[in-house]
Design brief:
Layout lengths: L20 H23 L5 E8 L14 E4 L8 E9 L4 E18 L14 E7 L45 E6 L6 E7 L8 E6 L5 E8 L2 E3 L3
Parallel strand pairs: 6-10
Antiparallel strand pairs: 1-4, 2-3, 3-4, 4-5, 6-7, 7-8, 8-9, 9-10
Protein backbone atom coordinates (compact mmCIF):
# COMPACT_ATOMS: atom_id res chain seq x y z
CA UNK A 1 0.00 0.00 0.00
CA UNK A 2 1.33 3.40 -0.95
CA UNK A 3 1.34 6.11 1.79
CA UNK A 4 1.58 9.76 0.90
CA UNK A 5 3.52 11.95 3.39
CA UNK A 6 3.23 15.75 3.55
CA UNK A 7 6.26 17.53 2.19
CA UNK A 8 7.88 20.52 3.85
CA UNK A 9 8.69 23.13 1.26
CA UNK A 10 11.72 25.40 1.72
CA UNK A 11 10.89 28.31 4.05
CA UNK A 12 7.89 26.46 5.53
CA UNK A 13 9.62 24.58 8.37
CA UNK A 14 7.21 23.65 11.13
CA UNK A 15 7.94 25.40 14.47
CA UNK A 16 6.55 24.50 17.86
CA UNK A 17 4.84 27.45 19.59
CA UNK A 18 6.77 28.71 22.61
CA UNK A 19 5.89 30.78 25.67
CA UNK A 20 5.99 34.54 25.09
CA UNK A 21 8.81 35.24 27.53
CA UNK A 22 8.72 39.02 27.04
CA UNK A 23 5.00 39.21 27.83
CA UNK A 24 5.48 37.10 30.98
CA UNK A 25 8.38 39.30 32.11
CA UNK A 26 6.18 42.37 31.62
CA UNK A 27 3.40 40.85 33.75
CA UNK A 28 5.86 40.07 36.55
CA UNK A 29 7.19 43.61 36.42
CA UNK A 30 3.65 45.03 36.54
CA UNK A 31 2.74 42.86 39.54
CA UNK A 32 5.84 43.92 41.46
CA UNK A 33 5.05 47.55 40.57
CA UNK A 34 1.48 47.22 41.86
CA UNK A 35 2.66 45.79 45.19
CA UNK A 36 5.21 48.58 45.57
CA UNK A 37 2.77 51.36 44.62
CA UNK A 38 0.16 50.07 47.09
CA UNK A 39 2.74 49.97 49.88
CA UNK A 40 4.10 53.47 49.17
CA UNK A 41 0.57 54.89 49.01
CA UNK A 42 -0.30 53.28 52.34
CA UNK A 43 2.80 54.78 53.97
CA UNK A 44 2.32 58.15 52.29
CA UNK A 45 5.81 57.94 50.74
CA UNK A 46 7.01 58.78 47.26
CA UNK A 47 10.01 57.16 45.61
CA UNK A 48 12.33 59.37 43.57
CA UNK A 49 13.46 56.43 41.41
CA UNK A 50 12.57 52.75 40.98
CA UNK A 51 14.53 50.12 39.04
CA UNK A 52 13.23 46.64 38.25
CA UNK A 53 14.93 43.63 36.70
CA UNK A 54 13.10 40.38 35.89
CA UNK A 55 14.78 36.98 35.98
CA UNK A 56 13.16 33.83 34.55
CA UNK A 57 14.44 30.28 34.91
CA UNK A 58 16.15 29.12 31.66
CA UNK A 59 13.35 26.57 31.12
CA UNK A 60 11.03 29.48 30.19
CA UNK A 61 12.26 29.54 26.59
CA UNK A 62 11.31 25.87 26.11
CA UNK A 63 7.80 25.94 27.61
CA UNK A 64 4.61 25.87 25.50
CA UNK A 65 2.29 28.88 25.65
CA UNK A 66 -0.37 28.88 28.36
CA UNK A 67 -3.95 28.72 27.05
CA UNK A 68 -5.03 30.98 29.91
CA UNK A 69 -3.15 33.76 31.68
CA UNK A 70 -0.49 32.15 33.92
CA UNK A 71 -1.01 32.55 37.68
CA UNK A 72 1.62 34.61 39.50
CA UNK A 73 2.30 33.72 43.12
CA UNK A 74 4.64 36.01 45.05
CA UNK A 75 6.78 33.97 47.42
CA UNK A 76 8.18 34.70 50.86
CA UNK A 77 6.92 36.83 53.74
CA UNK A 78 8.36 40.30 53.37
CA UNK A 79 7.40 43.48 55.17
CA UNK A 80 8.49 45.71 52.28
CA UNK A 81 7.89 44.96 48.58
CA UNK A 82 11.46 45.59 47.40
CA UNK A 83 14.71 43.69 47.10
CA UNK A 84 14.68 40.20 45.55
CA UNK A 85 11.04 39.18 45.11
CA UNK A 86 10.62 35.47 44.23
CA UNK A 87 7.65 34.30 42.16
CA UNK A 88 6.17 30.95 41.16
CA UNK A 89 4.47 31.08 37.76
CA UNK A 90 1.86 28.35 37.15
CA UNK A 91 -0.06 27.32 34.04
CA UNK A 92 -3.17 25.13 34.28
CA UNK A 93 -3.34 24.12 30.60
CA UNK A 94 -0.94 22.73 29.68
CA UNK A 95 0.35 22.17 33.18
CA UNK A 96 3.74 23.61 34.02
CA UNK A 97 5.44 25.70 36.69
CA UNK A 98 8.30 28.14 36.42
CA UNK A 99 10.40 29.98 38.99
CA UNK A 100 11.02 33.69 38.48
CA UNK A 101 12.24 36.73 40.35
CA UNK A 102 11.87 40.50 40.21
CA UNK A 103 14.71 42.55 41.69
CA UNK A 104 13.21 45.86 42.83
CA UNK A 105 15.50 48.77 43.75
CA UNK A 106 13.84 51.80 45.37
CA UNK A 107 15.47 55.18 45.90
CA UNK A 108 14.05 58.05 47.96
CA UNK A 109 15.34 61.06 49.90
CA UNK A 110 15.80 60.16 53.58
CA UNK A 111 16.57 62.21 56.68
CA UNK A 112 20.22 62.10 57.76
CA UNK A 113 21.69 64.10 60.66
CA UNK A 114 23.68 67.14 59.56
CA UNK A 115 25.33 67.37 62.99
CA UNK A 116 25.43 65.50 66.30
CA UNK A 117 22.15 65.50 68.21
CA UNK A 118 22.12 64.89 71.95
CA UNK A 119 19.66 62.51 73.59
CA UNK A 120 16.36 64.26 74.36
CA UNK A 121 17.21 67.25 72.18
CA UNK A 122 14.35 68.67 70.08
CA UNK A 123 15.19 68.27 66.40
CA UNK A 124 15.38 71.48 64.36
CA UNK A 125 15.26 71.88 60.60
CA UNK A 126 18.99 72.69 60.29
CA UNK A 127 19.87 69.49 62.22
CA UNK A 128 18.84 67.41 59.20
CA UNK A 129 19.73 67.00 55.57
CA UNK A 130 17.86 65.00 52.90
CA UNK A 131 19.97 62.41 51.10
CA UNK A 132 18.79 60.12 48.29
CA UNK A 133 19.56 56.51 49.19
CA UNK A 134 18.53 53.06 48.00
CA UNK A 135 16.11 51.95 50.72
CA UNK A 136 16.08 48.38 49.41
CA UNK A 137 19.64 47.99 50.74
CA UNK A 138 19.06 49.56 54.16
CA UNK A 139 18.90 47.09 57.06
CA UNK A 140 17.90 49.56 59.80
CA UNK A 141 15.03 51.99 60.22
CA UNK A 142 14.80 55.18 58.17
CA UNK A 143 12.54 58.21 57.77
CA UNK A 144 11.62 59.65 54.34
CA UNK A 145 12.37 63.36 53.99
CA UNK A 146 8.67 63.96 53.25
CA UNK A 147 7.93 63.21 56.94
CA UNK A 148 8.41 66.18 59.26
CA UNK A 149 10.64 65.51 62.29
CA UNK A 150 10.77 69.10 63.53
CA UNK A 151 10.37 69.33 67.33
CA UNK A 152 10.48 65.58 67.80
CA UNK A 153 13.08 64.50 70.35
CA UNK A 154 15.91 62.02 69.90
CA UNK A 155 15.82 58.91 72.09
CA UNK A 156 19.63 58.54 71.97
CA UNK A 157 22.72 60.44 70.97
CA UNK A 158 22.88 60.63 67.17
CA UNK A 159 26.16 61.05 65.33
CA UNK A 160 26.68 63.19 62.24
CA UNK A 161 25.57 61.52 59.00
CA UNK A 162 23.34 58.95 60.73
CA UNK A 163 20.06 57.77 59.23
CA UNK A 164 17.12 58.52 61.50
CA UNK A 165 14.66 55.69 62.18
CA UNK A 166 11.71 55.16 64.52
CA UNK A 167 13.92 53.85 67.35
CA UNK A 168 16.01 57.03 67.24
CA UNK A 169 12.99 59.17 68.20
CA UNK A 170 11.04 59.43 71.43
CA UNK A 171 7.49 58.20 70.96
CA UNK A 172 4.82 60.87 70.87
CA UNK A 173 1.96 59.53 72.94
CA UNK A 174 -1.51 60.29 71.61
CA UNK A 175 -3.10 58.48 74.57
CA UNK A 176 -1.73 58.25 78.11
CA UNK A 177 -2.51 55.61 80.75
CA UNK A 178 -5.42 56.63 82.96
CA UNK A 179 -6.80 59.21 80.54
CA UNK A 180 -10.33 59.14 79.20
CA UNK A 181 -10.70 58.15 75.55
CA UNK A 182 -13.40 58.03 72.92
CA UNK A 183 -13.93 54.47 71.67
CA UNK A 184 -15.17 54.03 68.12
CA UNK A 185 -16.69 50.73 67.01
CA UNK A 186 -18.03 49.64 63.60
CA UNK A 187 -17.90 51.41 60.24
CA UNK A 188 -20.00 53.83 58.22
CA UNK A 189 -23.66 54.12 59.24
CA UNK A 190 -23.24 51.33 61.80
CA UNK A 191 -20.46 53.12 63.71
CA UNK A 192 -21.00 53.74 67.41
CA UNK A 193 -19.01 55.57 70.06
CA UNK A 194 -18.65 55.24 73.80
CA UNK A 195 -16.32 56.46 76.52
CA UNK A 196 -13.50 54.53 78.09
CA UNK A 197 -10.23 54.67 80.00
CA UNK A 198 -6.81 53.94 78.54
CA UNK A 199 -4.94 51.30 80.55
CA UNK A 200 -1.68 51.88 78.62
CA UNK A 201 0.21 54.63 76.85
CA UNK A 202 -0.16 54.53 73.05
CA UNK A 203 1.10 56.32 69.95
CA UNK A 204 -1.03 56.57 66.79
CA UNK A 205 -1.36 53.08 65.32
CA UNK A 206 -0.52 51.26 68.57
CA UNK A 207 -2.79 48.57 69.98
CA UNK A 208 -3.57 49.18 73.67
CA UNK A 209 -5.90 47.87 76.38
CA UNK A 210 -8.90 50.08 77.08
CA UNK A 211 -11.62 49.79 79.73
CA UNK A 212 -15.17 50.45 78.51
CA UNK A 213 -16.72 52.85 81.02
CA UNK A 214 -20.27 51.57 80.39
CA UNK A 215 -19.72 47.82 80.60
CA UNK A 216 -16.50 47.71 82.61
CA UNK A 217 -15.01 45.31 80.02
CA UNK A 218 -11.35 45.52 79.08
CA UNK A 219 -10.93 45.44 75.30
CA UNK A 220 -8.14 45.78 72.73
CA UNK A 221 -8.26 49.00 70.70
CA UNK A 222 -6.03 50.87 68.29
CA UNK A 223 -5.07 54.53 68.70
CA UNK A 224 -6.54 56.73 65.96
CA UNK A 225 -5.74 60.21 67.20
CA UNK A 226 -5.26 62.22 70.34
CA UNK A 227 -7.67 60.73 72.90
CA UNK A 228 -9.40 58.54 70.30
CA UNK A 229 -9.24 54.77 69.72
CA UNK A 230 -11.10 52.20 67.61
CA UNK A 231 -12.00 48.54 67.93
CA UNK A 232 -11.49 46.16 65.01
CA UNK A 233 -13.50 43.07 64.17
Amino acid sequence: MLMLLPLSLPGQAQTTPRLDVEALALRLQQDATRLLDDYLALQGWQASRVEREVWLAPAASHLPPCLQAPELQAGGLYRQPWGRRPYLVSCAEPQWQLRARVDVRVFMPLWVTAKEIDKGQPIRAHDLVAKELEVSRIQRGFTPASVSLTQQKSSRRLRTGQLIGELDLQKQWAVRQGEGVLIRAGQGEFAATTRGEALEDGAIGDGIRVKNSSSGRVIQAWVLNRGEVETRF
